[in-house]
Amino acid sequence: MTDDLLPDLAPPRRIGLKSVIDGLKRSGTRFKKRNKRAERREPASVPTPLVSRQSPDTESVTDQFLNSLQRTQHLSVHRADWVRRVLEEHQVRGLNTTAAELVIQLGFVSPSTVIETIQAEGLQMPLPADAARLFYLWPASLLAQMGVVPIRLHDETLYIAALRPLEHFEQKTLIDRAASQETKITRITVEPLDAVTVLQRIQATPHVTGSAFTDLLVRHDIATNPSNLAPVLDSLFTDAIEHASSDIHIEVHDSATETRIEYRVANTLMHRANISPILGQRIATLIRERARIDTSNLEKPHDGKFNVNFHGRPIDIRVAIMPTYAGQKLTLRLSDPRAFQTVSHIFGHFPEISARLSRDAREAARRGSFDLVTGPTNQGKSTTLRAVIMEMERESKRVMEVGDPIEVLTPLTTQTNINTHPDVGLTYASYLKHALRHDPDVLFVQELRDEDTAIELLRLVETGHKALSTLHADSAIDTLPRLFSLIDRNRGQAAYIFAKFLTWIVHQRLVSTPCPTCSTQITASSLDPHTRKILGLADNDTVVEISGDGCSDCRGLGVRGRTVVPEVIWVGPAARDALSQQLSGIISETRAADYASLLSIPGLEYFPRVDFLKSLAAKRVIGWQTAAFEIGKERVYAL
Fold it and tell me: Rounded to an integer, what distance in angstroms lies between the CA atom of residue 398 and that of residue 483?
């Protein structure tokens, strides 16, 4: 039984026998003389066990559920046994946790797989809520107007809780809205749920979005003295989440006529609204108050954090404030601290890469390895590494993560926030120096920023630990000069360690995917010969063309959503010696080095991004315009 799963117990306190007897007397307990004869005649009573167990001949619902996941290879035998032990400990502690809830909370199995298993096996156990992704299919204002709470989606059937029976046109609205986002629904079933619960879940989220949100801003803008701005701010967050925004930008100018509100959506900065400087200052002050930031000092940058409720799920809002020449700039980063993605989901279009990364994660017991995900900012690098960590058997390994800040709470992982305050001084490098004393198996450093961090991480790899990190670089091969540009001392030794323990480098970029509503399919014969040659298409191939005008569903952008396009370097054992020799030689040279020559080393596999872009265009995952544009930016190496 692991220490972190035991109940929180206060340290024992010595109590004398007299104090115990006096306490029992005060509670009304009567004492009788011992009857030794009666004790000899009566058999000793057997205490009731704290954890009730099933008969060996009968299989509990929990065992049926876990065994089914094992048969379908969604759960290993080791993890199934570990879940059973945790459930027993939870029962001792009085926690009513089900196996379905536990495997989802720990990231072992996806919610959709859990629901499919329960229903396929006909198990009599409560279904976990799988509504997290459902809420993004419809505007919150529409669900509130209908009095509807989505519960789950299974076999093209949408299960909902509703305050009243839905009209036919209302059901059609829900189905059509979901279809526009590539989610097929053929039937809607209403499940019993207490009306009070439905109302609480509906009212948990502000529902003024879309045009209603714009009207709300206008009403507060023309009011001489807006009394309460909290609904405006809450609606701003809800509106941004429904737009699938990663950031909200607000720039307040004292002298300008307007304050702009913009969203970052799929690599594009989208204008949302204009408000007066007075209203912008009031909103900025309210944001500062919620983030516990000093509202009086506007002359220095500030960082803060708070969270909002979106359909019962906490959404973290990370606030960054920068003083400007005429006011202040606020950037709010939105993130779901419980949003997990799997390796198979991120690299679903590239099964070979997905299988290799998953296998490497499951073999994390092989100590002494270094893995890197590189790319520009805001391209999902940490998300990819966290997906790799979720594939590991974290219940039997000590996984430690350090970040600035920790954005996603990962189960069974020790996570620490960087704190560079002078009184604390917890930097990446100082964290790594102390982490070794905590017996880690895997270390996840969110970003390599400086020489001290790089050297400490390489030292930990050399002592037999698995390390994962991210780095800003322009391509997979550019990761090497970018890394060694951080290191000034002992570069030769660092190059030797890096080459000996490097397993893979994944450089990734997120490219926009076409809007399914307004995009069209055309034959490649309608493209010019140069474009067909770049994309490697035959005349009778079919590709997707992005609409230049867009539509209401994509808000005129023509694209909706993003997908990963990787570039991968995989280092096999046979390549390590040659990589070490050549890399050490390049590092020692003073002239401009040809790092691309390393790609021709036998045993080192290189997967160029151009091939993946062509594949995505041929599969009609991305538009031909996007593929041609991205290929035009790629460098082609002669191997």
Answer: 27
C-alpha dist (Å) from residue 251 to 245, 311, 334, 536: 17, 28, 17, 45
Q: Which secondary-structure segment (H or E) carries 157?
A: strand 157-162
Please choose, from the candidates 214, 259, 211, 257, the residue with its C-alpha nearest in 3D space to the C-alpha of residue 232: 214
Task: Output the average pLDDT for the chain.
Answer: 80
Asked if residues 536 and 491 have their Cβ atoms less than 8 Å apart, the reply is no
**Residue of 90, 67, 91 lying closest to 79 (CA atoms):** 67
Average pLDDT (521-549) is 91
Long-range contacts of range 586-592, CB-CB < 8 Å, 24 or more positions apart? Answer: 586/495, 587/484, 587/491, 587/492, 587/495, 588/492
- Single-letter residue type at 214: T
- pTM summary value: 0.74
At 326-375, the pLDDT tens digits run: 788 999 999 877 667 889 889 989 999 999 999 999 887 556 899 999 99
**CA–CA separation, 260 and 275 (whole Å):** 7
Q: How far apart are CA 352 and CA 360, in angstroms?
A: 12
Taking CA atoms, 361 is separated from 345, 394, 399, 465, 568, in Å, by 15, 10, 12, 13, 16
Yes or no: say if 302 and 321 are a contact pair by the CB < 8 Å rule.
Answer: yes
pLDDT digits (tens, 9 = 90+) for 372-414: 999 998 888 999 999 999 888 888 889 999 998 888 888 889 9
pLDDT at 247: 92
d(CA 531, CA 631): 10
Torsion 180-183-189-194 (CA) sign: negative
Closest CA to 125 of 108, 107, 150, 104: 104
The two tokens of residue 54 are: 């099933």
Q: How far is CA 125 from the centre of its chain?
A: 28
Most confident of 255-259, 393-397, 572-576: 572-576
Whether pLDDT at 29 is above 80: no
* pLDDT (0 to 100) of residue 592: 56
Tokens, residue 518: 């307004």
Q: Spell out the residues 6+ positions from residue 73 whose beta carbon is closer than 8 angstroms to its own.
A: none
Q: Amino acid letter at 464?
A: G
What b/e string do you get for 561-590 counting C-beta neighbours within 10 Å, with b at 16 or more?
bbbbbbbbbbbeeebbebbbebbbebbeee
> What are the tokens at 233?
């701010």
- If you search the block for the tokens 């046979």, which residue do you land on? 574
In the predicted structure, residue 621 carries a pLDDT above the cut 90: yes
Amino acid 616: pLDDT: 94
State residue 405's pLDDT score.
82
Closest CA to 65 of 52, 79, 51, 46: 79
Residue among 154, 197, 2 nearest 85 (CA): 2
Backbone angles phi, psi at 328, to 5 degrees: -150, 150
List all residues 6 or more positions away from 282 whose beta carbon is below 8 Å from its beta carbon: 226, 229
Instruction: Please give the backbone phi and psi of residue 169, each rounded to the nearest 5 degrees, phi first.
Output: -65, -30
